[in-house]
Amino acid sequence: MVVAVVIKDKERQYEGLRICIAGLLDGLDMMMFVLEHEIDSMDEAYTDNIDFMDEMGGKRFSNNSANVEKHGFIHATLKETASMLRDADLVIPF
Question: Which of 4, 12, 20, 66 is the most buried (most CB within 10 A)?
Answer without folding.
Answer: 20
